[in-house]
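ingest -> validate -> predict -> emit
validate: passed (alphabet ok, no gaps, 158 aa)
predict: started
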Amino acid sequence: MRRIGTSICAVGLLVGAGCAALPFLLFSDTVRVTLINETGSSVDVELFLSDEQNIPRLLLLEVDKDFVDRLGERVDMLILPGGRLSFFRSCDDLQAIVVGDADLNVLGGLGPDASSDVIRDGSDFGCGDEIQFIFHDGGNLLDFDVDVVVLEPTFAIG
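emit:
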């Protein structure tokens, strides 16, 4: 009987709040990470993530070394021109994240690089947020940067 009551409440909440509530209800215990390439070339990205909120940046960038593997995770991604990639991590598993190296592939893998500051749970983002790393160039071959935007979950009613 308790399950039926919970189900009725959940359906009532969805009906009352509309579809905008669905992502919040499904992913409220996760953080979404989105990589957005606003350049005309592909971008190779090395992300470093840790479940240790106060891990120093230098140690976080060494995560793929043998003795530091248990402190975090290294994620390598290729983002096509104009592309967007997203993934989720649990709030417990994602306490700190940094773009350690992003390479703009202008001429056969050659091009400028960029990195970000460490983004930390509590001070920079929270559970349920979306962290966007936006890669852009200034219209020339030497200008390349990454911006970090944190979007809090929205909950629309009606």
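The first strand starts at residue 30 and ends at 37.
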